[in-house]
Predict the structure.
Amino acid sequence: MLSPKNGARKTQGGSERVYYDGYWIRCYHPPAESMEARKQLIDTLNRRTFHHTERGINTPGGKLNEARAAYQNESDPQRKRVNAAMLAGALFNRATDIFHSLVELSARGVAVHADNALMRECGEYLREALELGGQVKHYSGQAGIDELWGEPFKAFSLPLADFYHSRYIKIAKSMRNIDQVAAALTDFFAGNPDYRGLPARVKRYAAAAKKECEIMKTDPDIFRVWPEFVAAGEQLENFRPKNEPQDAAGKLRRVEELRLIREGKDLINYVADARVPMPQNSGLFFEFMERAQRA
């Protein structure tokens, strides 16, 4: 049976869905093109980006010059990375400040064209923030989520309908990332009688995570999806193996196995919450799993 083409749509369970790369994703109609709609989208992405990234980088746009000077003058590699993250935050906020002003002018009847100098400046700030975004870490302290930094620039430069299209592609990648982590966890513990019942909990959590990944917070169905996601996560985190090992080697192995479950659960949570794939973090997790398999 042939797979549907990307962009195919259907109604399922009372909601409209769109198909991308193997997944039927809950979809929403983009707002009509307007400066105000774009402003609201960029504001949402601004809050979302800083919510998922490390502390201390939400630098006000008015501090852009100071943030740039600190970045340029720092020589220590570790401190310079943090300065890069702070500069990315300042660039992001400066672009948002400019766009707010342009929307206010537009609301007062002032024509704001795409080639306006401030529009170009806004775009350049977002582009530079995107270039620095690779040095920003996830709030967990693990590797960054580079794709998250690309969304504000897309929201600024693409038609809103195209931005929504790019969102579904990213969600499909995120769902695949969730499935990969869940499959690896399930395979690792398959056949181990002490972990009977764990694969079902992993599967339940992954399914709930994919629902959380696709739904908008403004959707009334969030009051069903979010509790399901949290409860499934608690069930997975609270899983305890049937028998307790008696020897020292077995006890050490048990600690590593429980850590594996916890880190796998956290990784699925990070991906679902951010709605972008996390290949670096996933790679580190799979390496840890391989070491545990060989032990």
User: Anything to note?
Assistant: The longest strand covers residues 15-20. Residues 77-107 form the longest helix (31 residues). Residues 171-294 form one domain. Residues 42 and 96 are 7 Å apart (CA to CA).
